[in-house]
Design goal:
Blueprint: H1 10-20, H2 25-59
């Protein structure tokens, strides 16, 4: 996998290291980015499931009231 070098504010990285609980700045930032991506995928899956459920409800025949 290709690597990218990014400069970040030291205080920001130290805070991430403390929150994540790791001693390596590289590992801390990588874990945060991976978590962010996973959350995005979970959100996409939840929205897709909700939209599919709504389509199923709309596709059902309606009872005629009268």
């Amino acid at each position: 996998m290709a690597k990218v070098t990014v400069s970040l504010d030291a205080e920001l990285v130290v805070e991430v290291m403390v929150l994540v609980g790791v001693g390596s700045p590289q590992d801390a930032v990588e874990l945060v980015v991976r978590d962010y991506i996973q959350r995005g995928h979970r959100t996409e899956a939840q929205v897709a499931a909700r939209d599919e459920a709504l389509r199923e409800v709309d596709a059902r025949p309606r009872d005629i009231e009268g």
